[in-house]
Specification:
Helices cover 13% and strands 36% of the residues. Strands 1, 3, 4, 6, 7 and 10 form a six-stranded antiparallel sheet that branches. It has two domains: 177 residues, TM1070-like (Hypothetical Protein Tm1070, Chain: A, Sandwich); 139 residues, Hypothetical Protein Tm1070, Chain: A. It has seven helices and 22 strands. 42% of the residues are buried. The protein is mostly beta strands. The longest helix has 14 residues.
Length: 393
């Protein structure tokens, strides 16, 4: 554990160099938020662990912790561990103070707060050999100081790191930060809502105490981004199709272009895609590219809310004939053949029409994790980042 937090400390010094920047509702951006989401991968028998680090950034004693007589002023972080299919298997809270930085080991959270049945539900077969070898899912966390009388704030920055001490590798990226965005404060319903399996607009609710205080959060859906896109250009509302069809703009697709890289026969490349709905069938037609601009089509499966794609298991064999091998994948919805993810069988869907296209009104985030294994230190590395594109016209 001492080594784990030493590694976290070193990486934090690098990760938090990037300060806050301009925020755009509906996309992942490096700004303070009130809640966040991160994926995790944890080896069953040692190996990789996932660290989650968050930082309180308000810097203003007049607005943080003012409901508390205690000194120093403190806040509450409420976290939940979810399976890939979004089953809640564990939760807890952490106390932090103004200006604090706190780190959590997902391995420790699973060991201490998730029961045997929940741990079994988190197990996955990452390498495709038929034997479960890792825990995987995602964690959501919310600044729930409203539970002790504080005012809801966008005062947290957070990041996720995949750390493998035994192999001398670590990679991190910023968490998906959710800013407070409430219709009553001028945000459009599409900027704060996703569509539920019942086919109704559902305002994102990370925590009841914050929601009860009259606040909600932005969502990472194509619809949310389109509204933000038009508002950034000075248009109060997206043009109305019935009034001005020649000016109407909408999300034409959501797209990911993850870069895959296999340094040698032991290198690994993973693409993780989160979407806020499980699908009974999640087949997506994609196009694989290599560095010589040679392309082959194929398919990937996205049935769960969090999906991990092991590129070695889906790439055409011809693209892995020699090392290093590298390229990228064109993943979009509607996909390259025009097919779209639709509402799962057995659920009403919008206007009670099961099977209708459904992708622009749910959340999406993609992470890419490339690992180059080598006995040469300079060639032994890993990298983690977020990838996303939303076409608006």
């Amino acid at each position: 554990m001492k080594k784990f937090f030493l590694a976290v400390t070193v990486l934090m010094a690098v990760a938090f160099i990037a300060g806050p920047s301009y925020a755009l509702i509906g996309v992942e951006d490096p700004v303070q938020g009130n809640a966040f989401r991160v994926p995790f991968i944890v080896g069953l028998a040692g190996g990789v662990d996932t660290a989650v680090i968050y930082q309180e950034t308000s810097g203003n004693a007049a607005i943080f912790g003012t409901a508390l007589p205690a000194n120093p002023q403190r806040g509450v972080l409420s976290w939940i561990i979810w399976t890939q299919a979004s089953v809640h298997v564990g939760d807890g809270t952490r106390i932090f103070t103004r200006g604090d930085v706190d780190a959590m080991s997902i391995r420790d959270l699973i060991a201490n707060f998730v029961g045997p049945a929940g741990q079994a539900a988190l197990e996955i077969d990452l390498d495709g050999d038929g034997v479960n070898d890792h825990y995987s899912g995602y964690l959501t966390a919310t600044e729930t100081s409203t539970a002790i009388g504080n005012v809801p704030l966008n005062n947290l920055l957070a990041m996720v790191q995949f750390i493998d001490l035994n192999n001398g590798q670590a990679a991190g990226t910023l968490a998906t930060m959710y800013e407070l965005a409430t219709v009553g404060l001028g945000y459009n319903i599409n900027q704060v809502s996703v569509t539920s399996t019942a086919g109704t607009m559902w305002t994102r609710n990370f925590d009841d105490s914050v929601y009860a205080a009259g606040f909600s959060w932005e969502v990472m859906s194509p619809n949310a981004y389109v509204w933000s896109y038009w508002r950034e250009r000075g248009v109060a509302a997206a043009p109305n199709l019935a009034v001005a069809p020649e000016l109407f703009r909408y999300a034409t697709f959501i797209r990911f272009t993850p870069r895959w890289y296999l340094h040698n026969a032991t290198g690994q490349s993973y693409v993780m895609i989160y979407k806020s709905l499980n699908h009974a069938t999640g087949t997506v037609n994609v196009r694989f590219w290599d560095n010589d601009e040679f392309a082959l089509s194929g398919v990937i499966q996205l049935p769960r809310e969090l999906n991990i794609i092991n590129m070695r298991l889906v790439l055409p064999v011809a693209m892995m004939a020699a090392y290093p091998a590298a390229g990228w994948v064109d993943i979009r919805n509607p996909d390259i053949l025009g097919a779209q993810l639709t509402w799962p069988a057995g659920t009403p869907g919008p206007q009670s029409l099961p099977g209708t296209p459904q992708w622009d009104e749910i959340e999406w985030t993609c992470w890419v994790w490339n690992i180059a294994n080598s006995t040469t230190a300079s060639l032994n590395w890993s990298a983690l980042w977020v990838d996303k594109e939303i076409r608006t016209q």
